[in-house]
Amino acid sequence: MMRMLEAQAPAKQTATETISTLCSRLSSATLLEDRRAAILGLRSFAKEYPASVASGALRGLIACLTKDGEDVDTTKVVLETLLMLFNPNEDSRQDNITILLDLLETPDFYSRLYSLQLIQAIFNARAERTQECILTAPLGTPRLVATLDDPRDAVRNAGLILLSDLSQASTELQKLFVFENAFERIFNLIDADGSLRQGGIVVQDCLSLLANLVRFNASNQTAFRETGGVGRCVALLTPPKKTNKPPAGPEGEDDWVSPQSDKNIWGLLAILRMFLVHGSTSTKANQTAFAKHGLLQLILDMAFDPATAVPIRVEALNTCADLIRGNAPLQEGFAPLQVRPLASPTPNGTSPQNGIPKIYIIEALLDLAVRPVTNELFDIRFAAYECIKAYFFNHLQIRAHFLNRAIEGHMAGGDETANILTTLMAGSHGSSVIDPYRPWFAAALTFHLIFEDHEAKQLLMTVDEGDAEQGEEVVTCIQTITANLISSLQLGEDERIPIGYLMLLCGWLYEDAAAVDDFLGEASSIHSLVQYALRPGNDHVVIRGLCAALLGIIYEFSTKDSPVPRRELLPILTQSLGREKYLDAISQLRQHPFVRDFEVLARDGSSTALPDVYFDETFVDFLKDNFSRLSRAIDRDPGLEMHHKYEGIDRDLVDSLRGEIDEKVKALEKLQSDLLSMEQKLNQEQGDHRRTQESSITQLNTIKRINEDLHTNHEKEMRKRDREHKQTVLDLENRQNLQLAALNNKLQQAEKDKTLALGKMRQEYEEKLHAATVARAEIEQRLTTAHANRQEALDNVRALEQQQRQAKDELADAQQMIQQLRTELETSSKHATDLEQRKKDLQTTIEKQKKEIQELKTKTQDLTWKVKDAEDRQRKAEASVKEKEEERRAAQTELDDLFVVLGDLEEKRAMDKKRLKELGEEVSDMEDEDDEDDDEDEDEDEDEDDNEEEDEVEADEEENEKKHGDEADDKDDEEEKEEDLEDEGDGGKEEQGIDQTDKEKEKVKDVTAKNGGGKRGKGRKSKA
């Protein structure tokens, strides 16, 4: 019975089906209570199934807000559901990632591999969220890092790539990975894959992960130093020692080099440069640690090894530059290092290295940078140039020593091909090989040696050419470089050569009046620069701009005592060149891609053309910082000289006095502008006080004339003093002091007069302003009163208009109401007639239903009596079943006892036969056969009895079936007419009674069979 009921029970609904049902109920419900119940159900699912609820019920929820907005309870539930949809359960996503991380603990290959690949796919879709989940997951990072120890390549490589991607943009994950000993595992993987020289793509992935862990992460860099990471890097970069032993593996496997070897070595050098970023707090500690492990000498040997690939040599030199830049002890210890020189290749393509003595590193770097080489080695050349710059970066003593050695070598003469001064002074004609970068590198290095170093500039100015005692013309270093510049421009040489000279001259002449005077000693150079600044065409934008910038620097820092005075220089710039041409050249230089988008372009190794390297980074920064000053230089008055911090005391005193005068003039101009602005405000606000204002303006104009007269007198005195200064140079100090004293007295007197005049004027102005303020207050008060009266009258008019509009609206509403009531009255009368007709119809229907109900009650009573009779018969059948069950149990007990006795007798009979056989007597088997025959007869008798009993039982069953069949037919006829729930219940009981009767029949059959078995048992007992 229970199974039948379970089979008829409806299937359980899933969450999706339930949500769908609730959504349809929400959209189709007409009652507020039904909609509220549906919303409550959706709210319970919104937290766990936000996507399903949102896709099916979002529109219904929004519509419910519009429809049921007045119901507070419904609105509250709707808003809570919407809030849950927009704030889903964050733990569910965390649980998903946690499940995948838990699978990494299993040893199964596919579980670990597919979990890593799935996390990788999730990370590609939601990078930040995946990182957050891994950070908060318990044992998340240890499990991920532990995949690097997996012996299976697929799992290990998948974990390596995932760790590299996760650590790329998350500082916290980088620290956690390092805390799980990631550095040691990475180096173990590199060693297992064949180190740098024999490793493949796995080594590259390891280096990518290592780069992500240490890039801009000071704490991880510290951990790298403290855990022996520097020593492991040195071990990886150290080349294997060559021995005379035969190779261990077949065909020399130990000497095999992977095609990825160069990329691996280059990648490790790039990682080392990440530790040496200029300006970082940990850079100095990293430099010291690298130097202690001998990394500097190791990298230099790699850079000067001819067997090393060019990109690796370039990266090695750049790493060396970063390693010593800004670290004074390392810079001082760099020069004594020695390396093998880069000899020119022999005809057979090899480079003889045996027997060649080593040279000092500075000499080797200068040979690389300054000596003529092919274009294919430009990157190595530029890296050597950067290494030399790093050697004397921010170290004045090394700068001075380097410059002194260059000057001494140049003055000594001889074959100094790598001497930067000799290269500069000789120009491009000093070499048989046309190499535009040879003078460019020499000029750039000299620029860095003297940039913003006045002492170095003064030291370099002592270099000259020619012997005056032998009647030769003495030419200074600046004039020689300028001559080389003009010569290169006239001959149309490569742009890089004049750009190098112009860079050096701009940096040298800036803020150095003595160097400017040296340059102006050859006046023809100015006219040559002006001509090249006026050169037309778009092919020489850089040259024109640099020539204009150099002319601006010369004018900005020249003096009246220069060989070409400032007053003579200005007409050259404004008339020969022109202000617009000058500014246009400066502007085009500023907007040129080489300056605006400056970068050192890496040249293509497959090309033989010159690379696009024209400027030095420091010079570009210098230009960008001073473009505005150079643009304003041409507008500066020639009588005003710039302040030079390296000139004498008298010049400083004059400049300070001029500065004070300029400040006072500016203060007067500011006061005048303030007074004018105040006058304009008074004109706007106080129209009644124009006469007073005009008198104030007259007084201000008087003060202006006085100030202008003072300024004019002061300029006349200064010009007079300048003329006397030129005529009487010997008495300059005395006359200058007297003039300064007189000037100070005049200035003090003018200041006092100005202060008194301003005080009187300010007092008069304040009095007049007070009177005007009082008058203005009275006018404003009257105006306020008039405004108030006007506003009150307007309010009264508006109120009357409002009352009139309300009366009209009320009259219209009343007329509309009367018309509406008439319409409703007519509708109500028609509706009353319809209701009376419907009432009569309903009464007739009710009388018919009463008669049918009475008939149904009669039939129900008859069925009730029949059910009671069936219940009585059922109770009697149950009693008879119980009696037969007791009889069967008793018979079964007797049968068990007989079986026990029979077994004992059979055992005793067998023992007796055995004894007779032992005594020698013959025992026949006839007795056994007789026993078997008797048993068969008894079985046949028992079968006959059983058949008779079965016939009787079948007859009883047929009678019961006939009775129940009649009752079932009656029941079917009655059920067709029944509509009441009580009758259906009675029908269910009758069916239950029939089922119970069938069960009773089955029980009777079982008891009959068992009783038959009992009879057979009794027969056996009696026969025994």
TrEMBL record:
Residues 921-959, 967-985 have a biased composition (Acidic residues). Residues 1013-1024 have a biased composition (Basic residues). One of its GO terms (biological process) is intracellular protein transport. Keywords: Coiled coil, Golgi apparatus. Residues 868-1024 are annotated as: Disordered. Residues 868-891, 905-920, 986-1008 have a biased composition (Basic and acidic residues). Residues 804-939 form the Uso1/p115-like vesicle tethering protein C-terminal domain. Transmembrane segments: none annotated. Residues 654-688 form a coiled coil. This is Intracellular protein transport protein-like protein.
